[in-house]
């Protein structure tokens, strides 16, 4: 069994997922054909600062200095009659299998927990099943279409694409320091989104689970559908995207269950080779 696990972990490291991700059309913005290597985001999040003075988890062990973030994404789509498109996506990560339960070292990183204590200077491992979703898009004409999306886990309509879906992750697969504060909802156990596109504009509305994934990276957390989000986006060209979004998130943090969050984001993304 150990040999099988090691071979599985090695396969995740050797398979280059970034080629797949660079071609990935982000499911919540199907008119955005290409992701970006340049992004400017200005999230205003009402979040409390974790106690990093004496109760956080740090480690100087040599075995905890191994850094090998990894993921692979599979996607499939099929036309339904002349105007419909059915899509399926699956995203897997062997972060915990490769690097352990407390993730990998990342100076100044914060957010998430390990053994019910805040992680500091470390990036937490992502869930083994980081994404499992289906979507259906119906085109009324060349200018108008409607999309219904379900994810368990999935991503609600908040913020720009998470860092691993941007082309910049090809050169730097480590999470940015703002990952937990900007992309915290990118693995959400229970998401339903409805999107309406008119020409280069799109409006999306999501109902989703506010609580972030627990420390068990191999289970499916309970869906609650107690939070809401909306996003308005404009794609003037194939390589330029603008979005504004806002989310009302109920009890996202396990260590602070009484705290709710209103997260507001705006971003400008440009893709260029």
Describe the structure.
This protein is mainly beta and 273 residues long. The protein has helices at 2-14, 18-22, 95-99, 179-182; strands at 38-41, 44-45, 72-80, 84-92, 104-114, 117-123, 129-139, 144-151, 191-198, 201-208, 227-237, 240-249, 261-270. Strands 1, 2, 3, 4, 7, 8, 9, 10, 11, 12 and 13 form an 11-stranded antiparallel sheet that branches. The protein has a two-stranded antiparallel sheet with strand order 5-6. The longest helix is centred in the N-terminal third of the chain and has 13 residues, at 2-14. Mean pLDDT is 81; it is low at 1-54.
Name the features:
disordered N terminus, 273 residues, 11-stranded antiparallel β-sheet, two-stranded antiparallel ribbon, mainly beta, 4 helices
DSSP strand count? 13
Helix content: under 10%
- Biggest beta sheet attributes: 11 strands, antiparallel
Overall mean confidence score, pLDDT: 81
Number of separate structural domains: 1
DSSP summary: helix tally = 4
What is the multimeric organization of the chains shown?
single chain
Terminal residue distance: 44 Å
| Shape call | globular
Poorly predicted regions are 1-54
Radius of gyration: 18 Å
Strand content: 35-45%
Helix and strand string, N-terminal first? HHEEEEHEEEEHEEEEE
Secondary structure category: mainly beta
């Amino acid at each position: 069994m150990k040999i099988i696990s090691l071979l599985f972990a090695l396969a995740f490291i050797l398979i280059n997922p970034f080629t797949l991700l660079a071609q990935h059309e982000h499911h919540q913005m199907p008119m955005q054909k290409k992701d970006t290597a340049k992004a400017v985001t200005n999230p205003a999040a009402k979040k409390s600062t974790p106690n990093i003075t004496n109760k956080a988890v740090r480690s100087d062990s040599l075995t905890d200095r191994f850094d090998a973030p990894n993921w692979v994404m599979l996607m499939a789509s099929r036309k339904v009659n002349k105007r419909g498109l059915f899509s399926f996506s699956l995203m897997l990560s062997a972060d915990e299998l490769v690097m352990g339960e407390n993730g990998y070292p990342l100076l100044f990183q914060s957010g998430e927990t390990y053994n019910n204590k805040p992680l500091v200077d470390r990036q937490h491992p992502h869930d083994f099943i980081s994404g499992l979703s289906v979507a259906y898009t119906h085109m009324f004409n060349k200018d108008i279409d409607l999309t219904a999306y379900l994810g368990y886990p999935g991503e609600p309509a908040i913020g720009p694409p998470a860092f691993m879906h941007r082309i910049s992750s090809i050169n730097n697969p480590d999470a940015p320091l703002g990952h937990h504060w900007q992309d915290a909802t990118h693995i959400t156990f229970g998401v339903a989104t409805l999107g309406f596109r008119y020409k280069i504009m799109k409006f999306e509305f999501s109902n989703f689970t506010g609580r972030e994934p627990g420390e068990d990276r191999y289970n499916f957390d309970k869906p609650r559908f107690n939070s809401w989000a909306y996003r308005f986006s404009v794609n003037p060209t194939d390589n330029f995207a603008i979005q504004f979004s806002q989310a009302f998130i109920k009890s996202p943090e396990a260590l602070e269950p009484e705290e709710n969050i209103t997260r507001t984001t705006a971003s400008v993304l440009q893709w260029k080779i």
